[in-house]
Amino acid sequence: MAHTSLEQDAAERPSLSFAYSDGEYTNYPAGPCPLEVQTAATTRCSLTGRRLASLPRFAITAGLDYQRPVGDGEVFVHVEIASRSGFNGDPSLSRFTYVRGYNLTNANLGYRFADGLELIVWARNLLDADYIQNLTIQAGNSGLIVGTPSDPRTIRGDDPLPHVILLKQMNKRRNLGSGGRGASV
Protein backbone atom coordinates (compact mmCIF):
# COMPACT_ATOMS: atom_id res chain seq x y z
CA MET A 1 0.00 0.00 0.00
CA ALA A 2 1.42 3.41 -0.92
CA HIS A 3 0.18 6.72 0.40
CA THR A 4 1.42 10.21 -0.34
CA SER A 5 0.07 13.08 1.70
CA LEU A 6 0.57 16.82 1.78
CA GLU A 7 -0.94 18.92 4.56
CA GLN A 8 -0.80 22.59 5.46
CA ASP A 9 -2.17 24.18 8.63
CA ALA A 10 -2.42 27.80 9.65
CA ALA A 11 -3.24 28.30 13.34
CA GLU A 12 -4.45 31.89 13.15
CA ARG A 13 -7.91 33.17 14.06
CA PRO A 14 -9.09 32.36 10.65
CA SER A 15 -7.67 28.88 10.10
CA LEU A 16 -7.22 26.80 7.00
CA SER A 17 -6.18 23.18 6.66
CA PHE A 18 -5.59 21.48 3.34
CA ALA A 19 -4.75 17.82 2.74
CA TYR A 20 -3.97 16.05 -0.51
CA SER A 21 -3.75 12.26 -0.50
CA ASP A 22 -2.76 9.98 -3.33
CA GLY A 23 -2.85 6.41 -2.07
CA GLU A 24 -2.92 3.21 -4.08
CA TYR A 25 -2.68 -0.52 -3.56
CA THR A 26 0.89 -1.51 -4.49
CA ASN A 27 0.35 -5.27 -4.29
CA TYR A 28 -3.21 -6.55 -3.88
CA PRO A 29 -3.64 -9.36 -6.44
CA ALA A 30 -6.41 -11.16 -4.50
CA GLY A 31 -8.74 -8.31 -3.57
CA PRO A 32 -12.54 -8.37 -3.41
CA CYS A 33 -14.31 -7.98 -6.73
CA PRO A 34 -16.70 -5.10 -7.42
CA LEU A 35 -20.38 -6.07 -7.64
CA GLU A 36 -20.53 -5.14 -11.32
CA VAL A 37 -18.02 -7.87 -12.31
CA GLN A 38 -19.01 -10.60 -9.85
CA THR A 39 -20.30 -13.90 -11.19
CA ALA A 40 -20.72 -17.33 -9.63
CA ALA A 41 -17.12 -18.09 -10.68
CA THR A 42 -15.53 -14.78 -9.58
CA THR A 43 -13.48 -15.19 -6.42
CA ARG A 44 -10.88 -12.44 -6.50
CA CYS A 45 -9.77 -9.40 -8.46
CA SER A 46 -6.46 -7.59 -8.63
CA LEU A 47 -6.65 -4.13 -7.10
CA THR A 48 -2.90 -3.49 -7.56
CA GLY A 49 -2.36 0.08 -8.77
CA ARG A 50 -5.92 1.20 -7.88
CA ARG A 51 -6.77 3.98 -5.40
CA LEU A 52 -7.18 3.13 -1.73
CA ALA A 53 -10.77 2.87 -0.54
CA SER A 54 -12.23 5.54 1.79
CA LEU A 55 -9.44 8.02 1.01
CA PRO A 56 -10.61 11.36 -0.40
CA ARG A 57 -8.03 12.98 -2.67
CA PHE A 58 -8.70 16.42 -1.17
CA ALA A 59 -9.81 17.52 2.29
CA ILE A 60 -10.13 21.19 3.17
CA THR A 61 -11.21 22.67 6.49
CA ALA A 62 -11.63 26.39 7.13
CA GLY A 63 -12.53 27.96 10.43
CA LEU A 64 -13.15 31.39 11.86
CA ASP A 65 -13.14 32.42 15.52
CA TYR A 66 -14.31 35.87 16.55
CA GLN A 67 -14.51 37.37 20.04
CA ARG A 68 -15.59 40.83 21.10
CA PRO A 69 -15.94 42.28 24.61
CA VAL A 70 -19.53 43.15 25.49
CA GLY A 71 -20.38 44.35 28.97
CA ASP A 72 -18.44 42.41 31.60
CA GLY A 73 -17.99 39.41 29.29
CA GLU A 74 -17.53 38.68 25.63
CA VAL A 75 -19.47 37.45 22.62
CA PHE A 76 -17.83 34.71 20.61
CA VAL A 77 -18.54 33.06 17.26
CA HIS A 78 -16.97 29.97 15.72
CA VAL A 79 -17.69 28.77 12.18
CA GLU A 80 -16.10 25.74 10.56
CA ILE A 81 -16.51 24.42 7.03
CA ALA A 82 -15.16 21.01 6.03
CA SER A 83 -15.02 19.80 2.43
CA ARG A 84 -14.09 16.34 1.19
CA SER A 85 -13.68 15.18 -2.39
CA GLY A 86 -15.41 12.01 -3.48
CA PHE A 87 -14.00 8.58 -2.69
CA ASN A 88 -14.87 4.94 -3.02
CA GLY A 89 -16.24 3.60 0.26
CA ASP A 90 -15.59 -0.12 -0.19
CA PRO A 91 -12.31 -2.03 -0.71
CA SER A 92 -13.77 -3.65 -3.86
CA LEU A 93 -13.90 -0.18 -5.46
CA SER A 94 -17.34 -0.88 -6.90
CA ARG A 95 -18.90 2.01 -8.78
CA PHE A 96 -21.97 1.45 -6.60
CA THR A 97 -20.07 2.43 -3.45
CA TYR A 98 -18.69 5.76 -4.69
CA VAL A 99 -19.34 8.50 -2.12
CA ARG A 100 -19.69 11.95 -3.69
CA GLY A 101 -17.76 14.86 -2.20
CA TYR A 102 -19.53 17.09 0.27
CA ASN A 103 -19.31 20.27 2.34
CA LEU A 104 -20.32 20.44 5.99
CA THR A 105 -20.79 23.64 8.03
CA ASN A 106 -20.87 23.78 11.84
CA ALA A 107 -21.11 26.91 13.97
CA ASN A 108 -21.67 28.24 17.46
CA LEU A 109 -22.48 31.59 18.98
CA GLY A 110 -22.19 32.40 22.63
CA TYR A 111 -21.60 34.79 25.47
CA ARG A 112 -18.90 34.23 28.09
CA PHE A 113 -19.53 35.97 31.41
CA ALA A 114 -16.66 37.39 33.48
CA ASP A 115 -16.93 34.43 35.91
CA GLY A 116 -16.38 31.97 33.03
CA LEU A 117 -19.99 30.85 32.63
CA GLU A 118 -21.00 30.50 28.97
CA LEU A 119 -24.33 30.55 27.12
CA ILE A 120 -23.98 28.84 23.75
CA VAL A 121 -26.17 28.16 20.73
CA TRP A 122 -24.58 25.63 18.39
CA ALA A 123 -25.44 24.14 15.02
CA ARG A 124 -24.23 20.97 13.35
CA ASN A 125 -24.76 20.64 9.60
CA LEU A 126 -26.02 24.22 9.63
CA LEU A 127 -26.79 24.32 5.88
CA ASP A 128 -28.56 20.93 6.03
CA ALA A 129 -26.18 19.23 3.58
CA ASP A 130 -27.51 15.93 2.28
CA TYR A 131 -24.62 13.49 1.89
CA ILE A 132 -23.56 9.91 2.50
CA GLN A 133 -20.81 9.34 5.07
CA ASN A 134 -19.84 5.85 3.88
CA LEU A 135 -20.98 2.98 1.68
CA THR A 136 -19.89 -0.65 1.85
CA ILE A 137 -20.95 -3.97 0.40
CA GLN A 138 -22.36 -6.54 2.80
CA ALA A 139 -20.25 -9.71 2.97
CA GLY A 140 -21.60 -12.84 1.30
CA ASN A 141 -22.15 -11.58 -2.26
CA SER A 142 -25.78 -10.74 -1.57
CA GLY A 143 -25.63 -7.42 -3.40
CA LEU A 144 -26.66 -5.53 -0.28
CA ILE A 145 -24.99 -2.12 0.00
CA VAL A 146 -25.03 -0.51 3.44
CA GLY A 147 -24.52 3.21 3.99
CA THR A 148 -24.66 5.90 6.63
CA PRO A 149 -26.63 9.03 5.69
CA SER A 150 -25.72 12.51 6.80
CA ASP A 151 -26.70 13.81 10.19
CA PRO A 152 -29.66 16.20 10.02
CA ARG A 153 -29.30 19.88 10.76
CA THR A 154 -29.24 20.24 14.52
CA ILE A 155 -29.48 23.57 16.34
CA ARG A 156 -29.41 23.61 20.09
CA GLY A 157 -28.67 25.85 23.03
CA ASP A 158 -26.72 24.92 26.11
CA ASP A 159 -28.12 26.89 29.04
CA PRO A 160 -26.35 26.32 32.38
CA LEU A 161 -28.04 29.31 34.04
CA PRO A 162 -30.95 27.48 35.73
CA HIS A 163 -28.39 25.39 37.63
CA VAL A 164 -26.42 28.48 38.67
CA ILE A 165 -29.56 30.33 39.75
CA LEU A 166 -30.60 27.30 41.79
CA LEU A 167 -27.16 27.16 43.49
CA LYS A 168 -27.31 30.87 44.28
CA GLN A 169 -30.81 30.45 45.75
CA MET A 170 -29.62 27.51 47.88
CA ASN A 171 -26.65 29.56 49.03
CA LYS A 172 -28.92 32.47 49.93
CA ARG A 173 -31.20 30.18 51.98
CA ARG A 174 -28.20 28.73 53.85
CA ASN A 175 -26.92 32.19 54.68
CA LEU A 176 -30.34 33.36 55.88
CA GLY A 177 -30.87 30.21 57.95
CA SER A 178 -27.55 30.61 59.78
CA GLY A 179 -27.79 34.31 60.52
CA GLY A 180 -25.71 35.16 57.46
CA ARG A 181 -22.77 33.02 58.59
CA GLY A 182 -23.42 30.01 56.29
CA ALA A 183 -20.92 28.45 53.95
CA SER A 184 -21.02 29.64 50.37
CA VAL A 185 -21.52 27.35 47.39
Describe the 3D structure.
This protein is mainly beta. Helix content is 9%, strand content 45%. The chain has one helix and eleven strands, in the order βββββββββββα. It starts with a strand and ends in an 8-residue tail after the last helix. Mean pLDDT is 82; it is low at 8-12, 163-174 and 178-185.
What's the arrangement of secondary structure elements?
Layout: E1 2-11, E2 14-24, E3 58-70, E4 73-84, E5 87-88, E6 98-99, E7 102-112, E8 118-124, E9 132-137, E10 145-149, E11 154-158, H1 161-177
Antiparallel strand pairs: 1-2, 2-3, 3-4, 4-7, 5-6, 7-8, 8-11, 9-10
Describe the structure concisely for a colleague:
The chain has 185 residues and is mainly beta.
Index terms:
two-stranded antiparallel sheet; seven-stranded antiparallel β-sheet; mainly beta
Q: What are the secondary-structure elements, in order, as H or E?
A: EEEEEEEEEEEH
The main sheet comes to: 7 strands, antiparallel
Distance between the termini: 59 Å
Secondary-structure-based class equals: mainly beta
The number of distinct β-strands equals: 11
Order of strands side by side in the largest beta sheet? Answer: 1-2-3-4-7-8-11
What percent of the residues sit in helical stretches (DSSP H or I)? under 10%
Rounded to the nearest angstrom, the radius of gyration is: 26 Å
Strand content: over 45%
Query: Spans of 5+ residues with little confidence (pLDDT < 50)?
Result: 8-12, 163-174, 178-185
* H/I helix tally: 1
The gross shape turns out to be elongated
Provide the residue-averaged pLDDT.
Answer: 82
